[in-house]
Amino acid sequence: MRHILSILLENEAGALSRVVGLFSARAYNIDSLTVSTTEDPTLSRMTIVTHGSDEVIEQITKQLNKLIEVVKVIDLNESDHIEREMMLIKVRATGKDREEMKRMADIFRGRIIDVTEKTYTIELTGTSDKLNAFIEAIDRSVILETVRTGASGIGRGERILKI
Amino acid sequence: MQISGAEILVRSLQEEGVEFVFGYPGGAVLEIYDAIFRQQQFKHVLVRHEQAAVHAADAYSRSSNKVGVALVTSGPGATNAVTGIATAYMDSIPMVVISGQVSTPAIGMDAFQEVDMVGITRPCVKHNFLVKDINELAATIKKAFYIAASGRPGPVVVDIPKDVTQRLAEFHYPESVSIRSYVPVTRGHPGQIKKAVNLLAEAKRPYIYVGGGAVQGNASAEVTELVKMLGVPCTNTLMGLGAYPGQDQQFLGMLGMHGTYEANMAMQYCDVLIAVGARFDDRVISVPSHFLSQPKKIVHIDVDPSSIAKRVKVDVPIVGDVKHVLRDMIDLFKQTGQQVPQQHLANWWKQIEEWRSYNSLLYTPSTEFIKPQYVVQKLYEITGGDAIITSDVGQHQMWAAQYYPFKRPKQWLNSGGLGTMGFGLPAAIGAQLANPDAQVACITGEGSIQMNIQELSTAKQYHTPVKVIALNNRYLGMVRQWQEFFYGTRYSESYMDALPDFVKIAEAYGHVGIKVENPADVEPVLREAFSPALKERLVFLDFRTDQSENVFPMIQNGKGLDQMDLPPHMRDLQIAPFENNRDYGNMC
């Protein structure tokens, strides 16, 4: 099953490689990983999307907690949460495709952020599923390039991840 | 006053009360060695290979309550240390390894003797540091010692670039350390402890399974008290040997791949299992599904949450320091007056005594060939069971574990997790330095000893009079045993041809060497080696042992605990299968 792990860790050199090394050393999967500093510059917040059985996810969580630099780990799937991912997608936009592409971007609440005579670059935000749906919805042959951030997640309501 | 980084390191080690640093100098650590030269507080032990420095520091730690320290140079010095670091990591041994690094501007430039030590050791350390700022050096050393020794212990590497050892700064050693992201648990949850006690109070076939965590956690007294108080059977893992006294009636011997028949059968057929600082690893329970096919309730006490429910799902997990948790359990039993149901327990003991009566460690004595088991038994007798025993890896390791019933924790030092050949001799040196008055013996084989034989030189220099007990069967014995059983006796590369004359080697290094070929000579030669006349000498005993001897019992890969390959004398016995609620009457 797909899980989103939120990790608060010390913003120190090497901390990221410890986390990534743990996943490869123990043969766990990383579907996506995002990381950046928080409002407290000594801390980084990481979101890892992974999949595995409940036992595997339990081990991943425990092993992450065992890393000295990891402050806290939560599995966002344990309660309500919000998930967002951003994609920049460059598409060929010529002739009748040009209008169609604009319409599709609007339907998915995307924004066209760069325009040339032959291309659009669209910024799209949403759950990973929504981004997949956009890719499915347009003609594959017009896609020139995609870049995705990977999912970031946060708990709903009062639930917070803090020291 | 400002002092150099090297001096800060030395002062920090002094502050930690370090007695010995095991190491080997080189370009990147010259500054540190110069600072060591100018101090008297701790002693440096010059090994002959960096791997041995780490093993010696490791065994110094294993045989005492202190953190071992090793010091190596950058590049090859650092990579040579890696096997030793991984060995300590697998067995959760507290250790601080200091490695030199090229100067900070040279890092990443493929400089001479540069290697990414922090990157290489990341998967086999509890934690590691690269110190780029001299102002953080003292605090980092403080943290390294704290992390190494607290929680589930382990090795910590501190990589120090050469320019950091040369720069100047004020020295201030922190008095305490607190790391917000690292807060080890000590006390177990009272509710869970209560559940564990209640389970035992309803158990029909209770069993206590004790691992290396009880040795490292100094919980031997608590293990013994609980087992005695309840009157229940107890087993130790390879790493746990000595945590419960080996000669006691309630001790069923070691369990696992080469465990005793009774220890393994009890593990399979118990109905309430208390695991203390053990991790259900593959060499102990073999296949988890088969182990669990016989229903049982499992209580798992461990300081490391990730050890719990890793291979086996448990009913009552208790995260905490084993010493504290066991103390709380003992107190609760005393407070509530609960006990294990006596009628059931008596029946359980009858079953166990039946298993034990088959004497699974019996071997066929010989007047022609020296039996390796016999050598270990005689060693036990002659040392009064009090020696610190180190071992290498292979058949001799298993025979040492089976035939030398350890009396106390920290008496048996071996590489259980990583299985590192070459551990024994440097470990014996480290253990002897930590315990100058103890008798220390290294049980080894002709294969393993050659992996670090150069340390005979270190032993000479530092006057560590360890006794090397080489069970020399001219084969990589355990490899040969597997080839005999599973590869149609095709002994591929397991025969040790062109062996050196170990007596001459010992003598060349300035020690005493004795070759023993006749079983009748085993006892007198051992007596001689441990006699007052040779008390101050390293004695290398080259026992030419029976080449065809195998280690039994043995659990083959993929088989269960109750599916052991048995020693010859048990193979034709009609052993009744275990039966629930069987009436033993007066049969035992």
UniProtKB/TrEMBL annotation, chain A:
Keywords: Amino-acid biosynthesis, Branched-chain amino acid biosynthesis, Transferase
Pfam family, one: ACT_AHAS_ss
The keyword Transferase is annotated on this UniProt entry: yes
Catalytically driven reaction(s): 2 pyruvate + H(+) = (2S)-2-acetolactate + CO2
Gene behind the chain: ilvN
Listed EC numbers: 2.2.1.6
Upper classification of the organism: Bacteria, Pseudomonadati, Pseudomonadota, Betaproteobacteria, Neisseriales
Alphabetized CDD domains for the sequence: ACT_AHAS
PANTHER family recorded: ACETOLACTATE SYNTHASE SMALL SUBUNIT, ACETOLACTATE SYNTHASE SMALL SUBUNIT 1, CHLOROPLASTIC
NCBIfam families xrefs: acolac_sm (TIGR00119), PRK11895.1 (NF008864)
Originating species: Vogesella aquatica
Pathway given in the UniProt record: Amino-acid biosynthesis; L-valine biosynthesis; L-valine from pyruvate: step 1/4; Amino-acid biosynthesis; L-isoleucine biosynthesis; L-isoleucine from 2-oxobutanoate: step 1/4
Membership in a protein family: Belongs to the acetolactate synthase small subunit family.
Subunit: Dimer of large and small chains.
Designated name of the protein: Acetolactate synthase small subunit
TrEMBL record, chain B:
Domain Thiamine pyrophosphate enzyme central: 193-328
Keyword Transferase listed: yes
Segments forming domain Thiamine pyrophosphate enzyme TPP-binding: 392-542
UniProt xrefs under InterPro entries: Acetolactate_synth_lsu, AHAS_TPP, DHS-like_NAD/FAD-binding_dom, THDP-binding, Thiamin_PyroP_enz_cen_dom, Thiamin_PyroP_enz_TPP-bd_dom, TPP_enz, TPP_enzyme_TPP-bd
Recorded superkingdom: Bacteria
Pathway it works in: Amino-acid biosynthesis; L-isoleucine biosynthesis; L-isoleucine from 2-oxobutanoate: step 1/4; Amino-acid biosynthesis; L-valine biosynthesis; L-valine from pyruvate: step 1/4
Keyword terms, alphabetized: Amino-acid biosynthesis, Branched-chain amino acid biosynthesis, Magnesium, Metal-binding, Thiamine pyrophosphate, Transferase
Molecular function as annotated in GO: acetolactate synthase activity
Domain Thiamine pyrophosphate enzyme N-terminal TPP-binding residue range list: 4-118
Co-factor binding comment: Binds 1 Mg(2+) ion per subunit.
Keyword Metal-binding appears in the UniProt entry: yes
Enzyme Commission identifier(s): 2.2.1.6
Catalytic activity: 2 pyruvate + H(+) = (2S)-2-acetolactate + CO2
Cofactor(s) this protein requires: Mg(2+); thiamine diphosphate
PANTHER family per record: ACETOLACTATE SYNTHASE CATALYTIC SUBUNIT, MITOCHONDRIAL, THIAMINE PYROPHOSPHATE ENZYMES
Name recorded for this polypeptide: Acetolactate synthase
Organism: Vogesella aquatica
Gene name per UniProt: ilvB
